[in-house]
């Protein structure tokens, strides 16, 4: 018999620490036995007792809570255990529509891009947006060879064996005539009934319950042992495809019917519509059935039906231009607004945030909501102390719809928006006047820039964000803590963290901090080291230059190719006479405002110094020339005059996707001028400079070849 354990109230701190370590190990062992092998070695009651003891010690010594604490875990499936799969065709996300007007705009945008005549029909498919997690299934000669999660869209986790256990996923495609290579995509989800039953089992076995069916599906799919996944009731709807050796059809509907014929389950509610009115009607019908479907959906997805048009529309940033998700109306709740707090963003923008008495909206506890800006507060006349209606749509930040005036306390005063930054420096905050329109901007900004500690903190958070340095284990929350503690003051400090920690310069050392331990600290250092070499676009985005977001950063990376080439230009970006500045402005999608902002950024002494320190720590990978085999990659093209087969927008998008740089003015660096009827000064200039001039058809022949 083991000696009886001491009563929790008698433990010393050292004993408690040792005891928590022992319990973490022991519970993890039992979790593995249960989750991965499904062979528990102790009774449920004994397992419960271990968890209770762990929880009791943690509640007496909250500071000792380990970062691998069993109370924070469900199941046992660390992501590092799966190998990575690079998606041959990225898995995209979807743009959102929140009302009928947004859907109408989407249709107009598509029509404009394709240059459709008024009497030409634009057919769309409409189908439920399943609230699960997407997966990509690769079949070669009809056999399932690899299955992966979406991950960040470019790289996912290899969960082939787990996906094989789903009844809805054929191991071998049915019928014949499937392409030799086909990737089928769709959503893994769990039905409401299965979810309830799973949680009931978890509860009985004293294990943590899953929050919602989507989490349960994700947790079940990412089990280390496929045998465990096999026992979880996961389902799959197929609705899309990735890499295919031959087209699946001419329309979305046809292609999805093929998936059905391959043996997949496709959603029975999918329909084809030919007008905005019909599209909105399907939305209403699907919403009306929502509560009876038996699985979670969070909106309706519209896709352009004709696949040739989808190809032409292509992608912008992370979403297709040819699809949109119309989300269901947000859920609402009423609560008290305790006070309004001002948050300072990376660019100094002061955003008013409503601090609320916590309230559940659509299954999530909400205690903060955005009030957007000064004018919005005035327009809605929202006051501290008011009862307010809060709404939440999907992953969108909760918003305040209105104040309930009838319940307003007598002493509530109109809110006065501060005119200084809430940071200790109390720098004046101003509303900039737009030079062109002469109008006052909606946003009040702190003018402190790099002196403002709040802006610096936000810069750091942006620096580590997903589309910037994306350091695993170092998210916004961690960076914020390190910043507030003086451990990290600027980006370069991230890369000296390990050396400083090992030299004992950080007090207390990282591994002794709350939420950290030996293992997580060493993982963090590995993750940081892995980012010492960084893609150019990520680096450019990470700098957090105003008006240079992810899309512009990618564009700049493609155009300049290397950091040195970009930097040479950037240094000259605010010199009105510099030809380098002109090259920036000429890039379609950059323009004056961004060029000015780039110029200002690199002129600022603090930035220049911080950048130097950062460059000592990291090396920047040159941009890969996209589609190197394209006959126009790296070439500079100017479109002028009217085009007949394409809209200007489409022609540009297509050229850029083939790796060409599209410029808005002709210079000695221009490779081609594509001139349509009505071309004027640009054509003349091209002729003067001896730049090759192509007709629209010649251009099409060139890119086709
Ligand atoms: P989001 O992640 O909100 O940008 O939405 C994109 C995701 O919606 C995709 O990655 C899919 O996982 C999911 N989705 C669910 N149902 C569908 C559907 N019918 N068509 C396309 N995407 C869908």
From TrEMBL:
GO MF entries: DNA ligase (NAD+) activity; metal ion binding
Protein residues bound to NAD(+): 44-48, 93-94, 127, 150, 187, 303, 327
Keyword Glycoprotein applies: no
Active site: 129 (n6-amp-lysine intermediate)
Biological process terms in GO annotation: DNA repair; DNA replication
Magnesium keyword on record: yes
Cofactor(s) needed for function: Mg(2+); Mn(2+)
Family according to the record: Belongs to the NAD-dependent DNA ligase family. LigA subfamily.
Protein name (record): DNA ligase
